[in-house]
Design goal:
The chain is mainly beta. It contains two helices and eight strands. The chain has one domain: Immunoglobulin-like. The protein has a five-stranded mixed sheet, with no helix packed on it. It has a three-stranded antiparallel sheet with strand order 1-3-6, with no helix packed on it.
Length: 165
């Protein structure tokens, strides 16, 4: 029995470490009253800045907690800041609709305290400049005056994929 516990522990510690280190480090939004997500994963990035590749879609999984009962209209808002200039990133309605992009079988309406994951597929266009860029993502409750229910900042850099194989 003792050796089985040791064996199990030896297997569990690396597995738990994988889950802990797989998250992308994020920062609090400038308004510290906005709740941070429980977890963010940007395209397997575990150190900042995260690379966003031109001509692709960056996959961003955002795990957050619902803040009130019967939340049924949630949207995502993205802002990019480069060289001191902040611009809103216009998401297609289908991508910015949080409820239609929930993972693991979750669906709206959500109830207070419910822990869900939203997957944002962010297009990285070929004309985006190759400069360090701060990414800000806000999740909004459209039925509650667009109250911010989750917000985070992450440092990114847009890069051109290498053409060599």
């Amino acid at each position: 029995m003792y050796s089985f516990k040791n064996f199990s522990l030896c297997l569990m510690i690396p597995l738990m470490w994988t889950f802990v280190t797989a998250n992308t480090p994020i920062r609090q939004c400038s308004d510290s009253s906005y709740p941070q997500p429980l977890m963010v994963q940007i395209d397997n990035c575990d150190t900042l800045p995260c690379d966003l590749w031109k001509g692709t879609e960056a996959k961003i999984d955002i795990q957050f907690v619902a803040t009130r009962n019967t939340m049924k209209r949630l949207s995502a808002e993205v802002h990019l800041t480069s060289l001191g200039v902040t611009i809103p990133y216009d998401l297609e309605a289908s991508r910015g609709n949080v409820c239609s992009n929930l993972l693991h079988g979750a669906y709206c309406p959500l109830d207070a305290g419910e822990d869900v994951t939203y997957q944002l597929l962010l297009p990285v266009t070929n004309n985006q400049p190759e400069v360090p860029t701060r990414l800000e993502v806000r999740l909004l409750d459209s039925d509650d005056e667009n109250r911010v229910i989750s917000c985070f900042l992450a440092d990114t850099r847009v890069k051109k994929p290498s053409s060599g194989a």
